[in-house]
Design goal:
Layout: H1 2-17, E1 22-30, E2 33-44, E3 48-61, E4 64-77, E5 82-90, E6 95-102, E7 108-114, E8 117-123, H2 132-142, E9 149-156, E10 161-177, E11 180-191, E12 199-204, E13 210-217, E14 220-227, H3 229-232, H4 241-244, E15 247-248, E16 260-268, E17 282-286, E18 291-296, H5 324-334, H6 340-354, H7 367-373, H8 378-391, E19 396-408, E20 411-425, E21 428-432, E22 443-449, H9 453-459, E23 466-476
Antiparallel strand pairs: 1-2, 1-14, 2-3, 3-4, 4-5, 5-6, 6-7, 7-8, 9-10, 10-11, 11-12, 12-13, 13-14, 15-20, 16-18, 16-23, 17-18, 19-20, 19-22, 20-21
Helix pairs in contact: 5-8, 6-8, 7-8
């Protein structure tokens, strides 16, 4: 009898996991205000499952509307093996797209398109990594026992990388959705080995289908909730993501003081893990009661911080350092400079003039697209500067954090989200900021990465739960002055946060 019960339970689980044709609409909200829609459509044949997902977002940055459209298509076998993938992003002046097709040797041929330019590469699939259907099956197989954990490797087509996640089962809950109340399983995904600052809470049904999701984003609570088509396609509401992401400074920092070293005291609420990173230019000290002391500007000998990794010299879908256009422009910019330091200085100075249009509506453009349009904000400056430096053989990484502004978007003495570049120079990491014309001690680093937008938003997940409690000028900083004080306001980062629902990842 017991064996029969076990057998029936197993058959029930398999029946629940089997894919079925479906179409799910979801409303996308920031702090309860509707900003977009998400639709997921699953088509099942005798041999394959194809999952199509499209998300549309509309927000404002200052008074500038920003509209983005992202699509992802995954073709898999009935047991969740990857067969092909596609992803596209439209939010700037051109479309970025990635297509992956299988080869007989088990690798994938990946075509990355930026506008009319195409780049072909080979991708070795990471064992155990899954796409949409594979993730759904893994959730069902992991079970819904409260307190349990299991690992999950998810592949993101646009990033062309795998995130290793820890999935925690929180328990069953009754959830109010626009269409009524549903009993759902609450799961929490975190990047394995990460700080926990960036997490995704999901509520799924017995079939492992996401019905609700919540994640922090630039100080907001981003939520997707299943509803009918009329609800999902209802008019969006205006919300200014830029103004809400600012942090008030407790004092004015005069222009003449910004070239000196600074010591900041930050207060974090809700037992938030430290979102700051120690670098060769920034030291982080934990105090008590959620307070941290951040010192920026005292030159440090490179010690415990990791040196360059292969990722810091590699081309990727956003930092296309092997593209002929990038290589040619970098050669033009560096001229006869004989050292990496001088090459970086020339690249920084060149880009400050080359990107001659600041566009808050750009979205998140790659290095190639920025070369073509000469338009963007700090993220476009950073990805192009990193690409040009890597094409010269200089390891670079992209830093996301905050920078001080006397006035910005109608606000006074604020820290705003910002992005810049660190290059490996003479055995240490040194910062270069072409959007600001220089790096100074009002730059506060929250994370480092390779240049994809998802890593930026992972670093910014703590905004809204921190405040700048104190600012002190702590000494001179001659080695960090890399040009005149900027005459323009900070070029704030782009907004393009969303990949497939149920995926989160990034490198800190």
């Amino acid at each position: 009898m017991r064996r029969q019960i076990v057998a029936l339970a197993l058959l029930s689980s398999l029946a629940t996991a089997h894919a079925q044709d479906s179409k799910t609409w979801m409303s996308v909200m920031l702090d309860g205000r509707k900003v977009g829609k998400l639709v997921t459509e699953r088509t099942v044949t005798a041999d394959t499952v194809t999952t199509r997902q499209a998300i549309d977002l509309r927000v404002t940055r200052g008074s500038t509307p920003l509209v983005t459209h992202n699509e992802a298509v995954a073709t898999e076998s009935l047991d969740g093996k990857p067969l092909a993938f596609h992803a596209s992003k439209t939010g700037s002046s051109q479309e970025n797209a990635v297509d992956g097709q299988p080869r007989p040797d088990g690798t994938f041929q990946v075509t990355t398109r930026v506008g009319d330019d195409a780049h072909v590469s080979l991708l070795a699939w990471t064992p155990g990594a899954v796409l949409s259907e594979g993730q759904r099956l893994a959730i069902v197989a992991g079970g819904f026992k409260a307190g349990s954990h299991y690992p999950l490797k998810t592949f993101d087509a646009m990033k062309q990388e795998v995130a290793t996640l820890d999935v925690e089962v929180i328990g069953d809950e009754m959830i109010d959705l626009p269409g009524g109340t549903e009993r759902l399983h609450h799961l929490r995904q975190r990047l394995a080995g990460g700080s926990g600052a960036q997490s995704l809470d999901m509520w799924v049904n017995d079939r492992g289908e996401v019905r609700r999701g919540i994640s922090p984003l630039l100080g907001f609570r981003m939520e997707v909730a299943a509803c009918d088509e009329a609800c999902a396609t209802a008019p969006d509401q205006d919300i200014d993501v830029l103004r809400s992401a600012m942090l008030q400074s407790p004092r004015i920092i005069p222009n003449g003081s910004q070239g000196q070293a600074m010591t900041y005291r930050f207060h974090l609420r809700d037992d938030l893990p430290a979102p700051f990173v120690s670098t060769d230019e920034q030291q982080v000290k934990k105090l008590s009661n959620g307070d941290y002391e951040i010192t920026v500007g005292h030159p440090q000998r490179h010690d415990d911080e990791p040196g360059p990794t292969p990722e810091d010299t590699a081309s990727n879908p956003w930092v296309q350092s092997d593209a002929p256009e990038v290589i040619a422009l970098a050669k033009e910019a560096v001229g006869n400079a004989s050292s990496d330091l001088n090459r970086m200085r020339r690249l920084r100075s060149f880009l400050t003039s080359y990107i001659d249009q600041t566009g808050l509506e750009v979205g998140y453009a790659s290095a190639l697209e920025t070369i073509q349009t000469r338009r963007g904000d700090c993220t476009e400056h950073a990805v192009l500067l990193a690409a040009m430096a890597r094409s010269q053989g200089i390891p670079t990484r992209i830093v996301t954090g905050l920078v001080y502004a006397q006035r910005f978007a109608g606000a006074s003495r604020v820290f705003v989200p910002h992005t810049w570049v660190q290059a490996w120079i003479n055995g240490r990491w040194e910062s270069f900021d072409s959007a600001q014309s220089r790096f100074d001690a009002t730059h506060i680093a929250l994370g480092v990465g390779s240049g994809d937008p998802w890593r930026f938003f992972a670093s910014m997940a703590s905004l809204g739960r921190m405040q700048v409690a104190d600012v002190k000028i702590s000494g001179s900083m001659p080695d960090f002055m890399q040009g005149p004080a900027p005459s323009q306001q900070p070029a704030t980062p782009s907004f393009n946060p969303v990949g497939p629902v149920g995926q989160t990842g990034g490198r800190r």
